[in-house]
């Protein structure tokens, strides 16, 4: 079915008719998939107590769409996914802006990766060689060339790599725009916590809502039975981010090996942007990034901590961000602190997401995006809705298959 | 090969691994398996031992003993606190004691380290302190009741190898507890050299986790440690100024 500008039918034809697609989780992944599916004419619902809320990892995320500058050894598969999704972002952003009437602050001026000391420079050169081997389009710059591009960089910056194809977007604008687009497309938002899955034999037929979860407009959830707090769907997708691994009622062979990886991130504000493009830097071996927005916001991130479901913002976390950011861009200390927040990335054992069908008919996963949820949202939605049905799509789908941990059991299963 | 014995516990592998710097848990898991390690150190700061799916689960699944460490502590007070939290959470009284003096070099602070070691030994811990390549300090820590001493080859993560092999030999000569070469290993020959110098074990992390192919480097380290230990046990020939024919000139 081709994408269509005609909204799907906003209300169900009859109560109790199952949805075509039900997303558990209203973060950037769940909302993106819901929006793309609704555009294709499907009847869609999203269950989340507070969609696009501060709890979602996308609320904390900086929104770097930088698969090239973030590539590391052993992670070529993640690079392939990132490049494929980056290629989808311009159309995704344009269509979302049109559907929602919102501006996403999507920008594609590239990422500048800089090195601070001579040790950092040696690592950068090695990385540049690796990128050339992968035939990635990067440009090696001297320290002075870096500072011509970004005059606010410290004179001590020794050199850099420009990844001109990298882009970035404001994730909070993206999720707000998705909510607006979903409303226009008639997608049902069910503001309730999912207590468990509804099964008919092996098959998953929908979800059971938590008792005090409530339902939209005080009525029973569209497509659900009026009394039981049950929502039925032909296909249910678990897209609950870091919480996907804690979903109740899933058999062990389906429970995704997802763990929360805490990231602390800081938003500063200045009247005018002090950087033109994303700057990533290594300062004495420690990484920091600075992401500028059109409105003068500057995002500094991010820590990576294995602390379970802990979202406390700590003095040490913020200090490390500021310490390294100030080495690269001394002027950051003059900016106003607008926001500090900690989010939980859904990490997987191999850092690759889990997208696609499980062994249970009717249940798919769209989770485990770790640091790349915003970048991978368009590709994830395309894989789930069948928009990426070509040969390349199949290769990418295999990389993300939730079945990979069960065919070849390894880490994270017997946790 | 002969067993390594630390604090009364036997290990058949003399390669102790660290977990820092691995790109993913799966890469780490594969590297640990390839290394053959039976003892691996984990930084306890910023780690919740009860969280599901963490690095600790990787170690547990492989049956590798966890050696909690106090990386990131600058004072004896912090290190003792971190060790006690680790003991409570992991139910082990083993601790790799690491008290650093500054963030640029990450060199161990000898005074804070000694202070913390004394307090932890008194508290019943099995203490493995990370120290500079200082024979005098190594001897004092042994006298204070540490179960091993862990002199550095070079600063953490530097990959500069063993900068003062002579001092390592002096530490080995005097030590009555295992000597574990910790930090500075860059490649396999560094690990082999440590063992040839008489160290009882090698601890490394970055050399493997940040290699382009971590699993392959882990395998290389495993072989190097074994080869170095075998060479040490076999006894090297004396160095000579001139050639000596290996086959007899005269029948």
Automatic annotation (TrEMBL), chain A:
PANTHER family: GLYCINE OXIDASE (PTHR13847:SF289), SARCOSINE DEHYDROGENASE-RELATED (PTHR13847)
Enzyme class label: oxidoreductase
Enzyme nomenclature, EC number: 1.4.3.19
GO biological process: thiamine biosynthetic process; thiamine diphosphate biosynthetic process
GO molecular function: flavin adenine dinucleotide binding; glycine oxidase activity
InterPro entries for this protein: FAD-dep_OxRdtase (IPR006076), FAD/NAD-bd_sf (IPR036188), Gly_oxidase_ThiO (IPR012727)
Disordered: region residues: 208-230
Database matches in NCBIfam families: thiamin_ThiO
UniProt pathway annotation: Cofactor biosynthesis; thiamine diphosphate biosynthesis
UniProt KW keywords: Oxidoreductase, Thiamine biosynthesis
A cellular component annotation (GO) from this entry: cytoplasm
Domain FAD dependent oxidoreductase, chain residue ranges per copy: 20-385
Chain intervals with Gly residues compositional bias: 215-227
Species: Planomonospora venezuelensis
Pfam families in the cross-refs: DAO
Protein name (record): glycine oxidase
Reaction(s) the record says it catalyses: glycine + O2 + H2O = glyoxylate + H2O2 + NH4(+)
From TrEMBL, chain B:
Endpoints of the signal sequence: none
GO annotation, biological process: thiamine diphosphate biosynthetic process
Residue ranges of every copy of the Thiazole synthase ThiG domain listed in the record: 6-248
Binding site for 1-deoxy-D-xylulose 5-phosphate: 157, 183-184, 205-206
Reactions this protein catalyses: [ThiS sulfur-carrier protein]-C-terminal-Gly-aminoethanethioate + 2-iminoacetate + 1-deoxy-D-xylulose 5-phosphate = [ThiS sulfur-carrier protein]-C-terminal Gly-Gly + 2-[(2R,5Z)-2-carboxy-4-methylthiazol-5(2H)-ylidene]ethyl phosphate + 2 H2O + H(+)
Residues forming the catalytic site: 96
GO molecular function: thiazole synthase activity
Enzyme type, top EC level: transferase
GO annotation, cellular component aspect: cytoplasm
Subcellular location(s) of the protein: Cytoplasm
Pathway: Cofactor biosynthesis; thiamine diphosphate biosynthesis
Functional note: Catalyzes the rearrangement of 1-deoxy-D-xylulose 5-phosphate (DXP) to produce the thiazole phosphate moiety of thiamine. Sulfur is provided by the thiocarboxylate moiety of the carrier protein ThiS. In vitro, sulfur can be provided by H(2)S.
Family: Belongs to the ThiG family.
The protein's name in its UniProt record: Thiazole synthase
Chain's gene name: thiG
């Amino acid at each position: 079915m081709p994408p269509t500008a005609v909204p799907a039918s906003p209300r169900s034809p009859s109560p109790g008719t199952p949805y075509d697609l039900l997303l558990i989780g209203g973060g950037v992944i769940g909302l993106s998939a819901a929006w793309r599916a609704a555009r294709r004419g499907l009847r869609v619902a999203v269950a989340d107590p507070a969609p696009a809320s501060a709890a979602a990892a996308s609320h904390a995320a900086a929104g770097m769409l930088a698969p090239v500058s973030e590539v590391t050894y052993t992670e070529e598969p993640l690079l392939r996914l990132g490049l494929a999704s980056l290629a989808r972002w311009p159309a995704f952003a344009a269509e979302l802006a049109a559907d929602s009437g919102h501006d996403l602050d999507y920008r594609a001026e590239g990422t500048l990766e800089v090195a601070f000391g001579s040790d950092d420079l040696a690592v950068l050169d090695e990385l540049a060689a690796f990128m050339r081997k992968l035939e990635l389009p990067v440009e090696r710059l001297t320290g002075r060339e870096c500072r011509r591009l970004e005059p606010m960089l410290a004179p001590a910056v020794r050199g850099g790599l420009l990844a001109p194809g990298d882009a970035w977007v404001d994730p909070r604008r993206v999720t707000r725009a998705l909510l607006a687009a979903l409303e226009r497309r008639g997608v049902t938002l069910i503001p309730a916590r999912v207590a468990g899955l509804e099964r008919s034999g092996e098959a998953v037929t929908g979800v059971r809502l938590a008792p005090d979860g409530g339902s939209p407009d005080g009525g029973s959830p569209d497509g659900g039975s009026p009394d039981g707090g049950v929502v039925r769907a032909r296909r249910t997708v678990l897209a609950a981010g870091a919480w996907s691994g804690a979903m109740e009622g899933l058999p062990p062979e389906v429970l995704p090996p997802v763990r929360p990886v805490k990231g602390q991130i800081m938003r500063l504000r200045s009247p005018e942007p002090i950087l033109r493009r994303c700057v990533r830097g290594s300062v004495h071996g420690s990484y920091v990034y600075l992401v500028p927005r059109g409105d003068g916001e500057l995002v500094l991130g991010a820590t990576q901590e294995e602390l379970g479901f802990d979202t406390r913002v700590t003095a040490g976390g913020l200090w490390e961000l500021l310490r390294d950011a100030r080495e690269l861009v001394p002027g950051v200390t003059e900016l106003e602190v607008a926001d500090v927040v900690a989010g939980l990335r859904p990490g997987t054992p191999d850092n690759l997401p889990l997208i696609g069908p499980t062994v249970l008919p009717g249940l798919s996963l769209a989770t485990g995006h770790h640091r790349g949820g915003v970048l991978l949202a368009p590709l994830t939605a395309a894989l789930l809705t069948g928009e990426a049905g070509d040969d390349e799509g199949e290769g990418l789908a295999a990389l993300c298959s939730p079945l990979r941990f069960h065919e070849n059991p390894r880490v994270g299963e017997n946790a | 090969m002969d067993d390594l014995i630390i604090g009364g516990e036997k290990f058949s592998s003399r390669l102790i691994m660290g977990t820092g710097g691995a790109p993913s848990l799966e890469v780490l898991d594969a590297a640990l398996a390839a290394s053959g390690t039976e003892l691996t150190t984990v930084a306890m700061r910023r780690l919740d031992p009860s969280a599901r799916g963490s690095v600790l689960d990787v170690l547990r699944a492989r049956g590798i003993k966890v050696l909690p460490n106090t990386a990131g502590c600058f004072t004896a007070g912090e290190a003792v606190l971190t060790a006690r939290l680790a003991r409570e959470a992991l139910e082990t009284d083993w601790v790799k004691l690491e008290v650093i003096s500054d963030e640029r070099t990450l060199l161990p602070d000898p005074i804070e380290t000694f202070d913390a070691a004394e307090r932890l030994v008194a508290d019943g811990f099995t203490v493995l302190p990370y120290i500079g390549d200082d024979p005098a300090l190594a001897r004092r820590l042994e006298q204070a009741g540490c179960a091993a001493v862990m002199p550095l080859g070079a600063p953490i993560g530097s990959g500069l190898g063993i900068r003062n092999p002579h001092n390592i030999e002096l530490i080995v000569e005097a030590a009555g507890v295992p000597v574990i070469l910790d930090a500075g290993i860059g490649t396999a020959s560094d690990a082999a050299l440590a063992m040839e110098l008489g160290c009882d074990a090698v601890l490394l992390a970055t050399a493997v986790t940040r290699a382009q192919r971590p699993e392959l480097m882990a395998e290389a380290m495993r072989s190097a440690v074994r080869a170095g230990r075998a060479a040490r046990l076999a006894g090297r020939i004396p160095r000579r100024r001139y050639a000596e024919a290996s086959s007899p000139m005269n029948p």
